[in-house]
Specification:
Elements (H helix, E strand, L loop, with lengths): L7 H7 L16 H11 L7 E4 L5 H8 L5 E5 L5 H5 L8 E5 L16 E5 L5 H10 L6 E7 H8 L9 H9 E9 L12 E8 L6 H16 L5 H4 L5 H8 L12 H13 L14 H6 L1
Parallel strand pairs: 1-2, 1-4, 2-3, 4-5
Antiparallel strand pairs: 5-7, 6-7
Helix pairs in contact: 2-3, 5-7, 7-8, 8-11, 10-11
Bound molecules: S-adenosylmethionine.
Length: 292
């Protein structure tokens, strides 16, 4: 069916549309590329797919050719809605939602396990990823195009320059793999930087909300001062004592601590929720003094 449609470029011209920088618009107009991304994202086996930021619909066309069940589009730029409506064959398979993906409730768009596929607007790529990884709705799998530097930060391992908060949080929740690189020239208009696609599958043993919150606090403190030893960067959370409890060398820096180590630190902060011992008239208790 999509073969009978005019090319994406012809459709953009027919609707008088061009890319707007404020919406982070860099389009993929080569259907060979969008089909490849959809192959990497699937198989969908009839499950619904949410596509964020369909723009002119290159990925949408490939999704409609695939084994996806319903295809639900969330597009913030209202100019694209008439063009996207041209893809609707009236079968009820395609739903177009005009709105901001940061605010939509995905559980109200789809029922049961659903995939997320997107060539993300770069300006909101990281907040959207955090929403999907730590928010109330969990996708079945996510296949997301980021600027290369962000993609590398998602999949980075301890000791790598790109390793930081995003890697620890993303990998605590999901198995993350970088599955495709794309040069800037693949997009219209080309962005300043290269891009890459990351495929994430949420883990069955992902941390519960309170532990995830603790992990966010620990990684924010540890990587907030990444050049410092953990005994000082984590001082507010317990410093050397916390490291001891978690079996971590307090003289290590955040960049060498693996996911398991950060999870132990996070668990130790949750276990710490005991009331602080009262101060004696002579000064802080031994427990307080040891901590400093
Ligand atoms: N999927 C299209 C493609 O590959 O050619 C367009 C990708 S373009 C990088 C990003 C798209 O996201 C644009 O269509 C833009 O209007 C849309 N967008 C930007 N911010 C958005 C938001 N907060 N919520 C939903 N869509 C958004």
């Amino acid at each position: 069916m999509t073969d009978e449609l005019p090319s994406l470029r012809e459709q953009l011209d027919a609707h008088g549309l061009s890319a707007k920088k404020s919406f982070g618009q860099h389009f993929l107009l080569d259907l060979n590329v969008t089909r490849k991304i959809v192959r990497l994202a699937g198989p969908f086996e009839g499950r619904p797919v949410i596509e964020v930021g369909p723009g002119p619909g290159g990925l949408t066309r490939a999704l409609l050719e695939s084994d996806a069940g319903r295809v639900v589009l969330v597009e913030k730029d209202p100019r694209f809605v008439p063009l996207l409506s041209d893809l609707d064959d009236g079968s009820g398979r395609l739903t177009i939602v005009e709105g901001d993906a940061l605010n939509v409730r995905e559980d109200q768009l789809v029922e049961g396990p659903a995939h997320l596929v997107s060539n993300l607007p770069y300006n909101v790529g990281t907040p959207l990823l955090i929403k999907w990884l730590t928010g109330p709705w969990t996708p079945h799998a996510l296949t997301l195009m980021f600027q290369k530097e962000v993609a590398e930060r998602v999949v980075a391992r301890p000791g790598e320059d790109a390793y930081g908060r995003l890697a620890v949080i993303a990998q605590a929740v999901a198995e993350a793999r970088l599955v495709m690189h794309l040069p800037a020239a693949a997009f219209t208009p080309p962005p300043k930087v290269a891009s890459a696609v990351v495929h994430l599958v949420p883990r069955s043993d992902r941390p519960e909300k309170p532990l995830l919150k603790a992990l966010e606090r620990v990684t924010a403190a540890a990587f907030g001062q990444r050049r410092k030893m953990l005994r000082s960067s984590l001082k507010q959370l317990g410093g050397a004592r916390l490291c001891d409890e978690a079996g971590i060398n307090p003289e290590d820096r955040a960049e060498v601590i693996d996911l398991a180590g950060f999870l132990r630190l996070a668990r130790a902060t949750v276990g710490q929720a005991r009331p602080t011992p009262p101060e004696t008239p002579e000064g802080p208790t031994l427990a307080r003094r040891k901590r400093s």
